[in-house]
Amino acid sequence: MKLIIKNGHVIDPSRGVDEVADLLVENGLxxxxxxxGSTADADVFDASGLVVSPGFIDLHVHLREPxxxxxxxxxxxxxxxxxxxxxxxxxxxxxxxxxxxxSVTRYIIEKARDAGSARVYPVGAxxxxxxxxxxxxxxxxxxxxxxxxxxxxxxxxxxxxxxxxMEYARDHNLVVVDHCECLDLSARGVMxxxxxxxxxxxxxxxxxxxxxxxxxxIMLAELxxxxxxxxxxxxxxxxxxxxxxxxxxxxxxxxxxxxxLALTDAAVVGFDTNTKMNPPLRSDEDRAALIExxxxxxxxxxATDHAPHHSDxxxxxxxxxxxxxxxxxxxxxxxxxxxxYEHGIPLTRLIGLLTCGPARAFSLPGGTLAPGTxxxxxxxxxxxxxxxxxxxxxxxSRNTPFTAWKLRGTVSATFVGGxxxxx
Amino acid sequence: MSSADNSRIMDKAGISRAIxxxxxxxxxxxxxxxxxxxxxxxxxGVPLAERVADRIQQLEGERPLVGQLDITxxxxxxxxxxxxxxxxxxxxxEDVTDRIIVLVDDVLYTGRTIRAALDELVDFGRPRRxxxxxxxxxxxxxxxxxxxxxxxxxxxxxxEIVKVMLTEYDEEEQVLVVEHE
Amino acid sequence: MxxxxxxxxxxxxxxxxxxxxxxxxxxxxxxxxARAIKKVPTLRGKTVINLFFEPSTxxxxxxxxxxxRLSADAINISASTSSLSKGESLIDTARxxxxxxxxxxxxxxxxxxxxxxxxxxxxxSIINGGDGAHExxxxxxxxxxxxxxxxxxxxxxxxxIIGDIMHSRVARSNVHLLTKLGAHVRIAGPRTxxxxxxxxxxxxxxxxxxxxxxxxxxxxxxxxxxxxRIQRERMSDAYFPSLKEYSIQYGLTLPRLDLAERDCIxxxxxxxxxxxxxxxxxxxSNRSLILDQVTNGVAxxxxxxxxxxxxQTRKPAQGEAQQ
Lengths: 423, 181, 323
Fold this sequence. Notes:
Shape of chain B: globular
Helix content of chain B: 25-40%
Oligomer: heterotrimer
Number of strands of chain B: 8
Strand order of the largest sheet of chain B: 3-2-4-5-6
Number of helices of chain C: 11
Largest sheet of chain C: 5 strands, parallel
CATH class of chain B: Alpha Beta
CATH architecture of chain B: 3-Layer(aba) Sandwich
Largest interface: B-C, 34 and 30 residues
Radius of gyration of chain B: 16 Å
Strand content of chain C: 5-15%
CATH topology of chain B: Rossmann fold
Number of helices of chain B: 4
């Protein structure tokens, strides 16, 4: 079976490719373009005016299955991913039960295989039930298919436990992903601590609550030599810490979410609970620092932290509503609109943050259009405008802060292993 | 605004004469100033009440007490009047119980203003008698209310407005009948 | 003169003109409260629901009296007696209330923003009766009304607000109102109870807002001193060591009040902790306007109910039905 994607603007930052070209897919793999002569029997996808990119990789999604299938399932989450141009997503372990052992890991992988959409890579827990005390069976989970470990949703508060987790993960070549938040400092906070929280009388979460943990994790990474990935960094100080660590060759990587790049805590003023997430939307200065870090390479990946919640749960008092917003189906539009069109960050850089950047951070396959690799491909129209309508989401949940936003950039088609999974 | 001449029904001197007449009638009917309390209905009833009081002082050598009533809170048509009502102070200087109250207003029309004023007045006590004095009675009553003292009766149509203009509020002193805009 | 919003959610959203409309209208209602028969028929047939998710005697009673003096029917629903304790969501509670067609709902809730969240869902006028640490607009209006009554102005006055600034909706609403009207507000209290960004919340209003270094600094030369209630439970969160130390360091005493202008007035939103944030001698002195605040609260809330509910019933202009 052959597919030729004709006349697309092929951008593959993993190999420095940025040109209008045809791309041949044969038997689910990217074919060597030099042999693209005999394509008479191939299906043709006309990609004129479109960008042809390696399939996007999202290091940070919450699929809610097992346990909270009313919010999202592995199948609906994988479909939402494909609709957003993501061919691979990493599923955080804070399900019910927690993915802290190989049987849950295998369950996720089987469910994802049945769904037959985007690839789903489970992230195992660092500690049993993510309670922060005893280590989870990381090696078993890795053998079952886990690609990293994290207690995401909460930090590993005990620094000695974190040290041991890093040492042990290093033995098994697993990246340790941390949700950096000093719970004592953030206690009961629901939004960024700043002028807006002071105006609204909502309890703030200071930047220091995040940065003190980022600093600790960087120091522990240096001490243990483990690979540490800082999830969803949100402050100027965190950016500075990661930048300094990278300059010293400490093995640390980090990700940022589209909503932290696009929004600030000013969005909370109307008390819309779809602006409530953790870490919270930060100040203008923080957002500017994140955009700069995305531009200069301090940030390795854009990850959505897709966190579906049922509308009944979100329609609560602001300080009682759960944290989290969906992100898979708005990521491309938000990133292109805000970073490319408003801030002039080149497409190659942004595609790198969605493809080879995350692939390297977790040592995942994909993120490239190199010949011989599986044909995970995202084709998108970089200039087409659309209005965000959550009723049209593939995700089971609608909790987005971007409702009714006019965005530029739509996914035209998503291929996983040469097979079209969207539309 | 239409030309003042063909719509003017009373000029400055006419107003002054009407006030004199009202004042004499009030003291005559009530046998003097004793127990008399003039209550002007906001806005233009207030300066009219003051003028009547001044005139009575000239006639009797004693000035009756004057109060003022803002009937906004007692209106039965809050939902139908156009511009936002402004609530002003009501100021009744003395206990009204056993007094003779003369409500003073510029124009008597539907009678609803006097009705509201009566409602408000009785919340202040139990007057011996309440009378009404108006500069103009233009007819079109919607309630069984009549004035005891009337400066001038004027035939009007429903589409007309009677504008009483007093120097306290307006440039020129006169009464006009104009078409509703 | 016009106030054209459906709701009164906070002072921050109001213009200077809006604020003056409320205060001027309240003057007329104060006169009504001084009559022998303290009742006018203005809102006869209207329904006002007091929906209180937090215990409150003062504000609830004040609104109840205000509604009744306007001849409206006032119904009180408190969290302990309503269906809220049965796990009904806020939204469902609101919709159930709406089904009873109230004309105004006064809401007090411990979570900031609840009146805002409900305002979009309900046709009734929503009056914020205090939402968490966010705003308490009716208290700020009655405070301003009280200050204006005594000082004949607000512009140019120095007002000290002292105590638990962080958790105080009264402080926030007063800061917005007083600075909009051109007063100079000084904030003081333990640093633990003053959010770091507090000085920035007044925005570009006519007056000014500063965080003073000490209570004495804030009181020095003040025309008005407003003390805030300190809550015992703040101790357990390590905001300050003890009530005794708090009262010595941050409490208002007669000697401390000598730092202020000679004709300085003292206010407190109540209920007062005598001997903690304010000494009994100050509470009972002739400088204390604490009871005036309570009296004025009724007039101000009558004005608020009148302006909001009357607006709702007002139809588009049909010309004057009367002369």
